[in-house]
Amino acid sequence: MIQRLSHVTIYVLDQNAAYDFYVNKLGLEVRTDATMDNGFRWLTVGPKGQPDLEIALMTAEPGPKMDQETSDMLRTLIGKGVLGSGVMQTSDIQNTYEELKAKGVEFSQPPTERFYGVEALFKDNSGNWFSLSQPVASAAKGA
């Protein structure tokens, strides 16, 4: 039986730029940053309060599992900003929104009331978009 999800992959256009964005702007911590003998870089990050989750920041480059055509298509989709990569939760969305915006994070939607809580939408520096959410239980406490 599957018990938990330990790793997820977000395809990025540049690992060094993604490192800077996810660590220095979003405040995630580096879990692994290792280069294999063949030059492949395994870079994972995660929220400080969730040590059992690793987010692999993977370049969309040709390799053993991706040909050039697929790489080109994926890079185009990432760059167009059409890939949603997930939901990141916070207990204080307004404060987190202001902090991230001050660090240069691009938001396409400011914090907005929804039936599930309060949500803002942002993009990483590759073009992947995320929901920044404060769940309804946390939103009610902050009101």
Structure, explained:
The protein has a four-stranded mixed beta sheet with strand order 1-4-3-2. A four-stranded mixed beta sheet has the order 5-8-7-6. The mean pLDDT is 93. By secondary structure, it is an alpha/beta fold. It has four helices and eight strands. It starts with 6 loop residues before the first strand and ends with a helix. The chain is globular.
Radius of gyration equals 16 Å
Structure summary, number of beta strands: 8
Whole-number mean pLDDT = 93
Q: What is the 3D shape?
A: globular
The total count of helices amounts to: 4
Q: Could you give the order of strands across the largest sheet?
A: 1-4-3-2
SSE string, helix = H, strand = E? Answer: EHEEEHEHEEEH
Q: Could you estimate the helical fraction of the residues in percent?
A: 25-40%
The major sheet is characterized as: 4 strands, mixed
Distance between the termini: 40 Å
Helices and strands: which structural class?
Answer: alpha/beta
**Residue share in β-strands:** 35-45%
Q: Could you name the ranges where pLDDT drops below 50 across 5 or more consecutive residues?
A: none
Q: Could you provide a short overview of the structure?
A:
The chain has 143 residues and is α/β, with parallel strands linked by helices. Helices cover 29% and strands 38% of the residues. The radius of gyration is 16 Å and the shape is globular.
Layout: helices, strands, pairs:
Blueprint: E1 7-12, H1 15-25, E2 29-35, E3 41-46, E4 54-59, H2 68-80, E5 84-89, H3 93-102, E6 106-114, E7 117-123, E8 129-135, H4 136-142
Parallel strand pairs: 1-4, 5-8
Antiparallel strand pairs: 2-3, 3-4, 6-7, 7-8
